[in-house]
Specification:
about 400 residues; mainly alpha; Receptor-associated Protein; 3-stranded antiparallel beta sheet; elongated
């Protein structure tokens, strides 16, 4: 939910903008954490939200990478912010981004900062993105900021797309196999079953099992389908709740091998986010807070939230992370070295690259394991199905 606010900063200057939060209390807390004194805050009208974020439209990570690189080049060429967003609004391929950039350009023309204008579009620009831009505005290095953002998003896109694309082939094979089996059980076998039953011969037990499955699909298939749809709907409703999301996030981390892959993915995301923000001059407290909001797993979000409180209390990041078994000791030790040498940003960069390589290697290994298992499983399934049908037919033909 978006809230319009007016506030006064610690220097006495009036600030206006938009904050995205689930409720007004969280919005107020978020603004107060920035050392702002709130003079007014109210939710945006529904028409404004719809105007700013087209319903059912999402902006792809790839599009944001491309426009970020374009913005970095244009800022480096000393083009004004208003001119940049007007140019991008006219040239970008994504229809959604064209509308977003049009609104951003209008807001900048009315006096908003770039970060304030981008903050109004959370469906396109994440909290992490907006905070990075705000840091670039404060330091006067927007060209470097957008270049950092493009590099970070490019790395993130490469890792996530690698995982997604690697699973497309196994998913396609499994779906095709299930479709063929359903077709066999509901169309082919029911036509052969009467011939086998009228032959009077004793059918093998595996043939009886196949005929039983076929009869079940014919008589109760529609109820099975409805049950699966209802189960999927209830599962989706459950994981949309806070308790359900925590339970599902815990399950993902505990699944053999796959859980290890997820852990490496989240550790890579934590290290990369914090590396990008620390090297951009953002404070450690703000870096942890923003990383917590975008890590994508409630277990690691809770770890980051608790670490944030510890760091605010004067504890080092490495000591805060050392309390949690989900953070590997090698990561805490390297962070400790970075804190002691003043090279924390570079250490986090090294960790991010390490875990990204680990994620890619784990995905490749998983796919290499899945493919032979699938071939064996499909071969056994098809072989048993054919044997259960062809053997009785062969015995029947041999009796004549």
């Amino acid at each position: 939910m978006l809230f319009d606010y007016k506030a006064i900063d610690k220097e006495g200057q009036t600030k206006e903008g938009v904050v995205d939060a689930p409720g007004i209390e969280i919005a107020i807390s978020s603004l107060q954490s920035r050392n702002l004194i709130i003079s007014s805050i109210k939710p945006q009208k529904e028409e404004s939200i719809i105007r700013r974020i087209p319903l059912f439209n999402r902006v792809s990570n790839k599009d944001i990478v491309i426009v970020s690189r374009q913005m970095a080049t244009l800022f480096e060429a000393q083009v004004s912010a208003l001119r940049i967003f007007k140019l991008l609004g006219a040239q970008v391929e994504s229809a959604v981004l064209r509308k977003v950039f049009g609104v951003v350009a209008d807001d900048i023309e009315e006096g908003s900062s770039i970060s304030q204008a981008l903050e109004k579009h959370p469906a396109a620009f994440s909290t992490f993105y907006v905070n990075m831009v705000r840091s670039g505005e404060e330091s006067g290095r927007l060209d470097q900021t957008f270049s950092y953002l493009a590099d970070y998003l490019d790395r993130s896109y490469e890792v996530t797309s690698k995982a997604k694309h690697a699973l497309i082939y196994p998913a396609f094979v499994v779906i095709t196999f299930v479709g063929v089996m359903v077709l066999m059980f509901t169309v082919i076998i029911p036509k052969i079953a009467p011939i086998l039953e009228e032959s009077g011969q004793e059918l093998p037990f595996y043939t009886k099992i196949v005929l039983g499955f076929s009869g079940f699909f014919i008589d109760y298939g529609i109820f099975l389908f409805i049950g699966l749809v209802v189960a999927a709907f209830l599962f989706k409703r459950f994981i949309d709740t806070k308790q359900g999301k925590i339970a599902f996030d815990q399950f993902k981390l505990k699944v053999p091998y796959v859980g290890d892959l997820f852990k490496k993915l989240y550790l890579s995301r934590i290290a990369d986010n914090m590396n990008t923000m620390v090297l951009s001059g953002i404070s450690m407290v703000k870096a942890i807070e923003t990383t917590s909001a975008v890590v994508g797993n409630d277990i690691y979000k809770d770890i980051l939230d608790k670490s944030l409180e510890a760091v605010k209390g004067g504890v080092s990041l490495s000591s805060a992370f050392a309390q949690f078994p989900e953070i590997p000791s090698i990561m805490t030790q390297m962070i400790k070295v970075g804190e002691e040498t003043g090279e924390l940003g570079n250490i986090l960069k090294t960790l991010a690259k390490f875990y990204q390589r680990e994620v890619v290697a784990a995905v490749d290994t998983l796919v290499d394991l899945i493919e032979p298992v699938m071939v064996v499983a499909l071969g056994l399934g098809v072989g048993i199905l054919l044997a259960s049908v062809l053997m009785p037919i062969y015995n029947l033909a041999s009796s004549f």
